[in-house]
Give the backbone structure.
Amino acid sequence: MSTEAATGPQPLSPAQRARLQQTFEHANKTAEKALKDGVKTNFDYAHDMYVVCVMGDLANVTYFKALIDNLYKKFGGKKKESKLGGWFGGGGTSAGNLKKFETSKDWTGLIKAGLGYLKSNPWDSGVLIKMAEAAAKLHLLDAQLAYLKGARNGSPKDPDVNRTCAKVLAGIGRFDDAIECWRRVKEALPQDMEADQMIGKLSVDKTIKKGKYEEAESTTDTMADKAEQAARKGEAQRQTPEQKFREAIEKNPADVANYIELAEILATEARFDEAKRVLAKALEASGGDVKIRELGEDMQVRHARENARIAERRAAEDKTDQAKALAQQLLAEVNRLETEIYAARCERYPNNTAYRYELGVRLRRAANYSEAIKYLQQAKNDPKRKALANFELGECFRMIKQYPLSIQAYEAALELLSARDEEVKKQALYWAGKVALLGTRDLEKADKFLNALAGMDFSYKDLSVLLDKLQQMRQN
């Protein structure tokens, strides 16, 4: 039987979030007082509370941004020497001391230890790079980017820091930022061939992303064509939809419909960061309308999915382990984000079985089987989702080796699946048969499921091997 790996922190309950927010607000007040009074011990006290917040919700980068800003103020913005030697194998440095956490794959422990080292030097790029690597292992993209940004603040011209940042930024389609990092590598190392190659490659990728590649043979031709078209059609004088809605917002900031339209325009152009900022303003203008909040959540998911899609494409093209790992990380980040959002919506709409089903699926993907089972058992009471909920329950019970329950759930799904669910039906027959054969050793049921699958698709996975195994076990 196959196994799945956990994919990062699990969603927080509303009570946990409330406690963290309370701690965060207290930390902010303490930090403000420290800045006003100039008492360093108050900065340290605020830092300790920020650490509680960061470790309580690693995915919430607002906490880390407040933490690092507090430390910058503690030192009056005067940078201390960054200890990059530990990052590249040197001994006796803070980054080098994080090695034990890497060896034991204690990624949350590494981040917590890193926050402790930052207390004495918030510009320690070596520590921040290590923290970014740990965040990547936990599939926390936003945290990874926040730590990398901190590393660049600490060592803005360092070629190794910029090289690391460039590769991550390119992987999620932030080509302008990645190119800027490669240019800094080039400035520090004029003979660096990789920098030259990547600046050229990313410039092409950027052009393709904007949809200009097929319109003309070069960027120059494309710009010329666009200018000619604008002159002919008078587009230069005409207001664009984006300008129209920005002007409407300026005239009437209370009308949230204009924010929503503008956000959709920006998202269509893959300008997701801007779209999210617009929806944040819409939420403020609406006084916290839950529907606007949910539009903002949906935009976060769209952005995460686009990042994952870009990373998957680059992994298929580059075929490097690093590119493949980033693609897997971003897919896990999508699942983590969706898990968090559906958990919040289940709290918000306790009678909505659709949200309970979706949350159950995400929890199952994250290998949180006991929680997934709870939500899927509730969702199977919905006639529209009963078949798929039972299939997902079969998957969960199989993974925790509750084989009789797994077969029972698969059977319930098979009774309800329609002709259009052929692929799911194949999976249910395959796993029900395999579990019956190798898990419960119920040869009669194994025969029923596996031969039913053979009638649909004899070439499915290792079906022929399982049928041979079934025959052999009967003979014995």
